[in-house]
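quick one, 134 residues, struct below
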Amino acid sequence: MVVKDGAEISSSTFGKGNAGNLTVRASDSIELSGESPGTGGKSGYVGGLLAQVDFTGEGCGGNLTIETGRLDVSDGSKVQTATFGQGNAGNLFIRASEVNVFETNSPGVYTAAINAGVTRGPGNSTVPIGSGET
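---
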């Protein structure tokens, strides 16, 4: 399975209500790479597999489960369960024989990562820190 150039598979909440759970299974590998480019002087968006509460959301984030032989996350993509808004982040489960998180020579705004937590709004210090638990 390949998700690239800022594409994402997401189960998130942007308003009131809980996000759903997201399970991704690929027998051989999952490759997540890149971010969407920004326009008009604004940053783009991360790509990857996301289950989260957006900074405008109020509710619980969903659980994210990944089952694969190899997971590659690169060039600004994310595997992420987080809350930027009000509510608890979901749980993150990764079952893989091999996990690689790396950057290539492709410059970007975001750093490839695997995250689970309560955090500040994306790329904007004026967005308040989310409230909730991981």
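The two ends are 28 Å apart (CA to CA).
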